[in-house]
Amino acid sequence: MRHFTVQHDGVTIPVSRGGRGRPLVLCPGLNSTQADLRELAGLLRRDHDVVTFDLRGHGLASAAERYSFDAFLSDLVAVLAELDLPSAPVLVGYSLGADLAVHYAAERPDAVAGLVLIDGANPLPEPFITEADLAEFRAMADDLATRREGEQARGAARQVLLTAQNILDLNLEIDVVRSAILGLYRKIEHPILMIMSTSIAGTGNEGRAPRHNQLWRSGIERLVRERPYVSTFWLDTDHRLVFTHASEVAEIIRSAPLSRQQFGH
């Protein structure tokens, strides 16, 4: 394993690299760190040269003056610019990290070999968060920020420095980003593999869960109608799939065809 840092935009991004085989870059999502993804990364290192890193304000990365989709995208761009890889990598993104991967690939078509998008980058037909959902999402953000305070105090690898308001604002921004993401998929000719949860909002039959779970599936159905070459796997679990089902996720990635010919192009 090799560990180093990337300095850019006033922040320090810690990067880890290890394994052997095809280059693969693993991008975490909002409120997740490379430490959280350690099990998945370890499994992928069996046959990939895996790069992991922390986004600003997450894990061992430094805090920043701004937290926005574009700021996080700049972190991914900066990390990839510093890597001396023998060939274009497979870019794997979880949640927000999947959206970052799609934007990167659409802007730099020659810089990636393929995309694996895990429970993110969903071209939703309507906003995930409505006025009726705001109070619940605000409470969720408050709860998450409170639970992370203990990690912050210890300077732990799983800490998140964002405030509850930062988290809520970013969730609302991600809704806007996803409303326009279908146009970016039209620019990507690389193989795309989606690994999605069937119950992103949980398994309950009351409250927000049924609508959000159906909306999540509708977004992927919309994508596949538009881009039928996209390969989709559904796991019967919630949004924590990279943590609770790391072995299944790793096996899908390791066994999936990621050549253009195998995708029918």
Strand residue percentage: 15-25%
Low-confidence stretches: 259-265
Order of helices and strands: EEEHEHEHEHHHEHEHH
CATH hierarchy: architecture: 3-Layer(aba) Sandwich
Number of strands: 8
3D architecture notes:
The protein is an alpha/beta fold and 265 residues long. It has a single domain, classed as Alpha/Beta hydrolase fold, catalytic domain (Rossmann fold). The chain is 40% helix and 18% strand. The chain contains nine helices and eight strands. The protein has helices spanning 38-44, 69-82, 96-107, 134-154, 164-179, 182-185, 209-226, 241-244, 246-255; strands spanning 2-8, 11-19, 22-27, 48-53, 90-94, 114-118, 192-197, 231-235. The protein has an eight-stranded mixed sheet, sandwiched between helices. Helix 3 (96-107) links the parallel strand 5 (90-94) and strand 6 (114-118). Mean pLDDT is 90; it is low at 259-265.
Characteristic key phrases:
single chain, 265 residues, alpha/beta, Rossmann fold, 8-stranded mixed sheet, 9 helices, globular, disordered C terminus
In short:
The protein is of the alpha/beta class and 265 residues long.
How are the secondary structure elements laid out?
Layout: E1 2-8, E2 11-19, E3 22-27, H1 38-44, E4 48-53, H2 69-82, E5 90-94, H3 96-107, E6 114-118, H4 134-154, H5 164-179, H6 182-185, E7 192-197, H7 209-226, E8 231-235, H8 241-244, H9 246-255
Helix pairs in contact: 1-9, 2-3, 4-5
